Q: What sequence folds into this?
């Protein structure tokens, strides 16, 4: 939970720096710029999720050589994809900004942000892989250390470049890129040292035949394709929300960006339980232990539900004070505070989707995740179409709330089959048959 909370903390600091030192256009530019990279980078979120699932299953089966092979496979993939993004930055930029609907000033500043931030692509994607391995191993202490390292450097550089040197939006992007490259070197050294302790002395760290095993590569590619489609649809939903916000003007765009920081902050708390259940479910699948699977799902879900209630109440009651800290722009403050209850409702309903995502990722049941993503997105767009003209921004928020609930409902359809596929029934379940 502490490791995850460090991620949205960065977004809150970026927002606070620009919200207090810049203008409404600067805050809107950060919203659009971050949106572009959320879409681009989380299109490759399979690097984190795929690494987690395969690592947890290999670890549960006691196959340390395969754990290292998973790291090798996904690291090579991350580096190649990162270099490809840099190579294709011009068409990506043109496509992204052709579909955004911010004002001319906001889009100009967001373009400056993009031109700097894109150079961190290989480091960002490789960090996804390294984080995924730590989650899969259940190594939360090292995960926390890496996150604090990344965010500590990033926050300091953002304040220095954007605040002290007054580079504004460009300074935020530059600080992030430098922090990402420093962190990936630190994390890689940390993880390699840890895995060396776990391997047998006579074993090579990486075995080429394990990394490039054809069957494992095909399984990895298939799983990654499913997760990529699922993630693209998920990121599209938030991109659609932000782009629709821009249609209501810069003030609404900035206000919704602030509220999404609260949603993001809460999401990373809730995702902590999902990360835990990913590792435990993957280990249970690898070991063929349905009893362990049931305990992991039940206990993590109860804790996630309690946390979701606490977070929603906290945002509803104290979100107004946080808004005042994040920006001194009065019109943005007023808009944000008037919609706090919607963000709180969304946060409460989101925990079930996070939990089920974690369960299916841990089991590498990626096809079901893809299918559920398609079904829930159809619900989202239908509800948006029905509500947007009559209720405006409030209708936009309610379409997102219904969407996150639909994500959970769609995955629940597949849950009984997933559970039945994990090992043997627990002792309690088998008693009636024995009698």
A:
């Amino acid at each position: 939970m502490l490791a995850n909370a460090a991620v949205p903390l960065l977004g809150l600091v970026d927002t606070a720096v620009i919200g207090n030192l810049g203008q409404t256009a600067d805050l809107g530019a950060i919203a659009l710029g971050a949106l572009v990279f959320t879409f681009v980078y989380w299109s490759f979120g399979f690097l984190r999720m795929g690494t987690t699932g395969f690592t947890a299953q290999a670890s549960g089966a006691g196959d340390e050589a395969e754990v290292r092979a998973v790291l090798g496979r996904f690291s090579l993939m991350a580096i190649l994809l990162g270099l490809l993004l840099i190579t294709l930055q011009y068409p990506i930029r043109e496509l992204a900004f052709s579909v955004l609907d911010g004002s001319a000033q906001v889009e100009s500043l967001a373009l400056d942000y993009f031109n700097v931030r894109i150079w961190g692509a290989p480091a960002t994607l490789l960090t996804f892989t390294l984080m995924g391995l730590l989650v899969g191993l259940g190594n939360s202490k090292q995960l926390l250390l890496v996150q604090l390292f990344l965010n500590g450097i990033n926050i300091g550089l953002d304040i220095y470049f954007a605040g002290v040197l007054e580079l504004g939006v460009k300074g935020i992007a530059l600080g992030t890129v430098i922090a990402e490259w420093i962190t990936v070197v630190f994390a890689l050294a940390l993880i390699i040292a840890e895995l060396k302790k776990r391997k047998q002395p006579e074993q090579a760290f990486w075995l080429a035949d394990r990394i490039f095993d054809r069957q494992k590569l095909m399984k990895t590619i298939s799983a990654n394709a499913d997760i990529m489609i699922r993630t693209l649809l998920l990121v599209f939903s938030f991109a659609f929300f932000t782009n629709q916000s821009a249609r209501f003007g810069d003030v609404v765009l900035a206000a919704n960006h602030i509220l999404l920081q609260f949603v993001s902050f809460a999401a990373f708390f809730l995702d902590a339980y999902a990360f835990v259940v990913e590792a435990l479910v993957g280990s249970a699948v690898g070991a063929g232990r349905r009893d362990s699977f049931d305990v992991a799902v039940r206990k993590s879900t109860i804790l996630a539900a309690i946390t979701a209630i606490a977070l929603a109440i906290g945002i509803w009651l104290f979100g107004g004070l946080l808004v005042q800290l994040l920006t001194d722009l009065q019109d943005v403050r007023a808009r944000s505070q008037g919609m706090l209850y919607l963000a709180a409702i969304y946060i409460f309903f989101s925990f079930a989707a996070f939990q089920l995502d974690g369960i299916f990722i841990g089991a590498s049941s990626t096809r079901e995740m893809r299918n559920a993503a398609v079904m829930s997105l159809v619900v989202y767009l239908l509800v948006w179409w029905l509500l947007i003209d009559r209720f405006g921004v409030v209708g936009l928020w309610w379409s997102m709330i219904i969407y996150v609930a639909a994500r959970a409902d769609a995955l629940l359809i597949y849950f009984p089959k997933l559970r039945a596929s994990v090992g043997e029934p627990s002792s309690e379940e088998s008693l009636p048959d024995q009698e």
Remarks:
- Confidence is low (pLDDT under 50) at residues 426-435.
